[in-house]
Amino acid sequence: MGLRADSRIKFRYEDYKSLPESEIRRYELLDGELVMVPSPSEYHQRLSRNLGFLLWQYVQERDLGQMYSAPLDVVLGQGSGREIVQPDIFFIAKARASMIAETEIRGAPDLIVEILSPATARRDRTYKSTLYARYGVKEYWLVDPESRVIELLTLGPRGFERVACYSERAVLRSPLLPGLRLALTEVF
Questions:
Q1: What is the per-residue pLDDT for 80?
Q2: Which residue of 51, 103, 145, 153 has the fewest CB atoms within a 10 Å radius of its CB?
Q3: CA atoms within 13 A on the CB side of 134
Q4: How far apart are CA 134 and CA 139, in angstroms?
Q5: What are the tens digits of pLDDT across the range 132-179?
Q6: The pTM is what?
C-alpha cells in the first residue's frame, strides 16, 4: 500500500518562506497550498512593462504612492491563515506606506492588476478575486491579452463589481486614480 498525501495538512507561511530562492520558479501560497506560477510569455511581459510604466508615470508625477511588479510577496491575513500572492502589478497609496516591508508587502494593495494567461485565468477570475475582495483591495484590473481588453472591477459591499470593460482602442479611466487617462493602444 503506497503513501498518500494528506490534503488536510496545509502549508504555512513559515514553509513558504523556507523555500529556496529561485530566479526560475515563483510560488504563491493559496488556501494552504503551494501554487507554482508559470513563467510569463514574452507578450505578457511586454504588456506588464507597458502598463506598469504608464501607471508608474502617473503615480510618480502626482506623488501618490508606490507601484510594484512581480515578483514581490503580498501577504494577506494573519497567523496560520496567511496567504501569499505575487500580483503582476500593484499600487499602494502613500497614506498606506507602513505596510511596505523590506521583503514583502503586509496587507492588501489599493490596486491589483493581473494579466491573464491560460494557466492562471480561472484562478485570477475566481479564487484571487474573492481573496482580494475579502482583504479590501479597492480596485482590480484583469488584463486579457488574447481579447485585448482590460476589465475594471471595484470593491462593493458583496465583493468586486464590474465597472467597465475597455477594449484596446479605448481610454481607461480609474475611479481609484482620478484624472488617469490610459490609452490602451499604448498598452496593447
A1: 84
A2: 103
A3: 11
A4: 12
A5: 999 999 999 999 999 999 999 999 999 999 999 999 999 999 999 999
A6: 0.86
